[in-house]
Each structure stands twice: as structure tokens, then as C-alpha cells.
Amino acid sequence: MDHAVVMAGGSGTRFWPESRARRSKQFLDLTGGGPMIRETLLRIFPVIPPERVWIVAGAKDAPHLSHRALGIPKRNILLEPEGKNTGPAIAYAAAAIGRKDPDAVILAAPADHAVANVRAFRAVLRKGLRLARETGRFVTLGIPPTHPATGYGYIERGKPFPGKVPGAFEVVRFAEKPDLPTAKRFLRSGRFDWNSGLFLFAAGTFADRLAKFLPEVDRGFRRAFRGNRAGFANRLARAYRRMPSISVDYGILEKETGILVLPANVGWSDLGTWRSLHEFLAGTGENVAFGDSILSDCRNVLVRTDRGVAVVLGVDDVVVVRSGDALLVCPRSRSEEVKGVVEEIRRRFPSLA
Amino acid sequence: MDHAVVMAGGSGTRFWPESRARRSKQFLDLTGGGPMIRETLLRIFPVIPPERVWIVAGAKDAPHLSHRALGIPKRNILLEPEGKNTGPAIAYAAAAIGRKDPDAVILAAPADHAVANVRAFRAVLRKGLRLARETGRFVTLGIPPTHPATGYGYIERGKPFPGKVPGAFEVVRFAEKPDLPTAKRFLRSGRFDWNSGLFLFAAGTFADRLAKFLPEVDRGFRRAFRGNRAGFANRLARAYRRMPSISVDYGILEKETGILVLPANVGWSDLGTWRSLHEFLAGTGENVAFGDSILSDCRNVLVRTDRGVAVVLGVDDVVVVRSGDALLVCPRSRSEEVKGVVEEIRRRFPSLA
User: What are the Cα distances from residue B205, in Å, to B38, B106, B127, B243?
Assistant: First the structure.
């Protein structure tokens, strides 16, 4: 059967002041359609029904998970005792799913991304599930780049992959977030896609590669799942304490050969920063406003206010966000740096971090 | 005796969102020293004591007047039934003062200006009072310009005025707010001062010129002050209804000959806009912040927040003001335009206007 794992462990401090220590990015309504995780789940359900959708989240985020309202069984909610990046997160879900359904094919997806063309997205998911099942290979979703982004990792495409599912390519390599000249070269070459962080695999393949590439993680989950149910939480906590913090990209995908990439022209955005939110929602030059506001003679402005009225007059390329007692003003192009400011807020105004 | 009239009738919508329909600029604490009108009064008191200081204000502002705490008698508070600009405002005060003290010399000052060098300012006031008393002429305070401001009126100086009080000049003419090339020419010529709006005159001189240049206004106050005390408010209201709305500059000073100007190098600012507030408080490139805030990599930024924390990252020449439910972001150079936005706020969000 097909399963999905939605990874909801991130914090997303770059969305301060809306994201806070106790309100992670994936629980924010950034696009106006509802909390990101809810949008992600609703996007997946027509392809993989709620009973086979799993969520991996931090224990602290448990109160925010409205899985029950969406029909996801409680046993599908996997709470990690501590965050150890995506490697252990996916391994936890793959182990839980594999015990119930050894022949499972699994979609792994971050909770906090956005997709403009949902219908096309679902078609790609279905193709990816078939491809992973028929080939036993890891299948990544690659996003045809629209500009030389330096905030995304890239996947280099090789030869078209022959087989019953058309449109897939061999992966030549994964490239880390490039500098601008490199990103421009990637774009010109026509051989690179953005790495969406969504990928699919057969449970058996994952179990095999986990044992091979991340044996400590593999051993940890074997020990945790062995033994009586009452002791599981303690065994899991002990296993997590000993595990390395490692991404699935670095720990497995970059070491694996024979990975496939399926180009997915679906209007995807990782919504990594206020800037990328603006780009996802607006055309060049357009303003986006959430909440009562007056924008006069502005271009490329993103305004969000959770109360009152925001008046923005005569500025370009600026992000203005008011959330509770906190206010942020910064250029769109520097919204990456919000992350750094949150460190200072933590020190000086901890109640607003 | 010497008297002072402080004109507190303005609204100062350019300081939105701190100024509101029910909170005029002169009652704001813009510089951190207290409400502007209070600063203005305290600046004058060592020269003219509270018993001889008069305030002309709109009836709606009566609740904000804390004159009693400052020792100003209640009878010195003159509430106008409606605003008719500075001509009638000063005429009202001059009539009230002249009835008690026909030999009075009167300083007329707006409530909403700022002075950096208070000691020098008081010395100039004393000189001005002597000059007005000894010559019977109108004496204006001219501010040596520091830059080609287009937001101020100018006074052209003529010959030095001989007499016992040194430093005064004949006024050649008053020039309205100039365009930038004209302002630059004024500055280069070395003959122009900014018109501070502060001026001094003998009560008798004023009464004479009022009758000559603004006979309708003169007649209105004569009628209001004639008759029993009980009917005064009604007679005043009737008189105001018929009066033209006219500034004292346009109605009297620009028609008068023989006016003197006393250059006053006292660090004066009319604090007309957020920009001029920033310029008054900070050197070039410096930021000014009121309220908890983090300014990172900013220049020439003015931040004011009445609660919470404002984070401003990587912007130059910007004004950020949060007051209650309202928020303003605009370039420093366009703070003049706030006035226009307030019109729109009045229509769309009247509770915040």
C-alpha cells in the first residue's frame, strides 16, 4: 500500500514574528488557506488516504496537531523525544510503517511547503509512487527552476530513465545550495532541478539503505521497537539520545546510487522566507496584504497585520509583519536574515522569541 | 507687562498614527521630554510667568490642557468655538490681554515647536520683548537656515535696525514655502531666515493693525467682549461663525510695514513631520528609537512603538511608528504625505483617524 510521512519537526524562525518558539512555521497560515501542515495533508489525501498518512513531529508540537479532525489515526502520530533532523525522523516513520506493511511505498514530504497547481502535484505523486514501487529505487521530485535561486539545493538530471512510467531521469548528483554564479550556470545548463525535499521509496529499500549508510540509526530503532509496548517511550528516548543529528539527504540520498528524479512543474515553493512567500503569492511588482491595510505607492511589499491597520506609504521591496506585540520591518531581499535577529530577540526579549 | 499667547489650535495630522482626531500633535510627547505644549510653556515661564501666559485652544482640546498643574490661571485659557486659523486666535488673546493690560507686550508662539538651545532661546525672547516695547513694531524671530528647507516660509532680512537692542534687522518681505531651487537661492544669498512663527508685538500696535487689516475680525471681538459676562460664549460663537479663516501672517504681517526680524540661532524646529523630528533628535546617519526595539544595519531610521518590540533590519531613511492599533511605515523623505493618507484612514477606518 502507499503511505505518506509528513515531517513536521521544523521551527522556521525565519518567519518571526509569526513563528515563535511555541508556534512553528508549519502551524502558521501563511498563504491564507489554513495552517501549512493542514494544506499539505489535504493536498496528499486524494492520493494517500488519512489512514495511511503519518506525521512525525516534536513532542512540544503535539497540542497543535489537529490530525483527529482530519481523520488521521492517533497511532499514526509519531512524536520524537528530540529533534535529530530528517534522517531519524523518516527512519522512525519507515520503521513504524514497515512493521505494519512491509511492502509499503512511502512518500516523504515536509509539512511546510506550498504548491500552486495541486492537480498536477497529485498526478506527479501518483507517478512517483508507481515508479518507486516498480523500480525499488528512491524517487525524488525535482522542480524546474524559474530563477537562479541560491536558497535551494539542486539535483542534476542525467539520462532519461526507460520504463513504464515516463518522464523520469537518472540523478547524476545532488548539489548543495549554490552561490549565485553557480546557480546561474545550473539554470543555463538546463540540466538542474530544485530539490523539493519530497521523495518516495519502498519501505524495503529504505530499511536496506538505512542499515548500510546509517547503522547507528538503524540499530536505535530496532532496539526501540523490540520489547513490550509499555517500555517503548523510554527505549525510544534512549535511542534518540545516542543518534546522530543528520539529514536524510546527507545521510542516505547523497550516498545512494540509482536514484531517479521526476520533474514536477507544479508551482512548488518551500516558503522558506517572507520573500519566498511574497513570490509565491504575487507577481513581480505586486503587493500582498493580510489584514486591514493601506498601501500607497508601494511595489513588491508584503504586509501582514493580525490587528488594527497598517499603513505603508511609498516603499518598495519591504516586508512588514505585525504579530501580537512584535513588529518586523525588513527588505524583502534580506528576509533570510530574520533568523539571525531571532537569536538577539531570544536574549533580549525572550517572551517574544 | 509681558504676556505670552501659546496657540494650541492645530491638529498635526502628519504625526499620525500618534496624532489622532482626539489627540492633537501639541499634546504628544514627540521628543521624550513631555507633551509639546508643556515643553513650550516651561520654556517660556522663566521669561514670562504662568500668570501672564495665555493659551488659545479648540474647545475639543480642553480636557488635555493641564494648565492648572503648571500654574496658569483658568481665565487665561481661551477656548475658541471653532478654528479660524491664527489670525482670529491671536486677535482673541490680544483682545483679552489688552482689556486687562493695555500696555502689554505679547509673545505669540505656536504650541508645537521644539528648541534645542533653551538658554539662547530665552535670551532672544527677552530681546524681542524689549524691542517690541521700545519700537512699537512687530518683531519676528527668524531662524538662520541650516539647509534649503522647502517646508518653511522664509523672511528676507534688510538693513540692520539701529537702536538700543542690537541684532535686529528690517524685514524686506515674507516668502511663502519655496520650491527647492528657490530655497537654495535663499540659502546662498545669506539674507533669508526661516519664519519660526514666533513673533512679538505691543497690544496697542496689534489692536490698531487688526482694525486696519482685518476689520471683520476686529468688529467680531469688539461685539463679543461688549455686554454681560453670561452672554459672552454665545456672542463669541456668533462672532466666530462670521469671521474669515485667515492666518496672522497673511492677514496682518504680510500687509504691515516696518516689521523687524531678530535672528534666533537657538536650534529651533517646527517638528512638522516625522522627518523633522528625526532631524531634530539625531545627526545624519543616526537612528532614533522610542520603545523596545532592535535596529540592525539601519541608518536614518526613526522607530516609535508604544508596546511590544519593533525589529527593523537593513533599511535606511525609514519611519516606523506603532501606536495602539495603528502602524505606519514610510520613507523619511515622504513623511509629509502622511497628511494625505489620514484622509483615506478617515474614510476607511474612522476609529483610527
Answer: 29, 10, 18, 21
Cell of B233: 460664549
Closest Cβ opposite residue B352 in set A309, A324, A345 = A309
ipTM: 0.87
**B347 to chain A: closest CA residue:** A294
Per-window interface: B 5-44 vs A, CB < 8 A: 16-17
What predicted TM-score, i.e. pTM, was given to this entire model?
Answer: 0.89
The Cα A235–Cα A229 span in angstroms is 10
Of B314, B324, B348, the CB nearest to A334: B314
Q: Identify all chain A residues contacting B299, using CB atoms and an 8 Å cutoff.
A: none
Provide, as residue numbers in chain A, all residues whose Cβ is less than 8 Å from the Cβ of B17: 311
Q: Which domains does chain A have, with CATH numbers?
A: 2-269 (3.90.550.10), 274-352 (no CATH)
Residue pLDDT tens, chain A, 353 long:
999 999 998 778 899 999 998 888 999 999 999 999 999 999 999 999 999 999 999 988 888 887 777 899 999 999 999 999 999 999 999 999 999 999 999 999 999 999 999 999 999 999 999 999 999 999 999 999 999 988 899 999 999 999 888 999 999 999 999 999 999 999 999 999 999 999 999 999 999 999 999 999 999 999 999 989 899 999 999 999 999 999 999 999 999 999 999 999 999 999 999 999 999 999 889 999 999 999 999 999 999 999 999 999 999 999 999 999 999 999 999 999 999 999 999 999 999 99
Q: Name the amino acid, one letter, at A180.
A: L
Q: Cell numbers of B31, please? A: 521628543
Chain B, 312 to 341: residues with Cβ < 8 Å from chain A are 312-315, 318, 320, 322, 324-331, 334, 337-338, 341
- Give the residue from chain A lying closest to B349, CA to CA: A309
Q: Sign of torsion, CA B279 B283 B287 B292?
A: negative
Query: Looking at the complex, does the CB of residue A306 fall below 8 Å from at least one CB of chain B?
Result: no
Instruction: Answer whether B320 sits within 8 Å of A329, measured CB to CB.
Output: yes
> Any residues with CB less than 8 A from the CB of A92 and at least 6 apart, and which?
A56, A78, A80, A221
Q: How many CB atoms lie within 10 A of CB B160?
A: 11
Query: Any chain A CB within 8 A of the CB of B343?
Result: no
Residues from chain B that touch A330, judged by Cβ atoms under 8 A, are 311-315
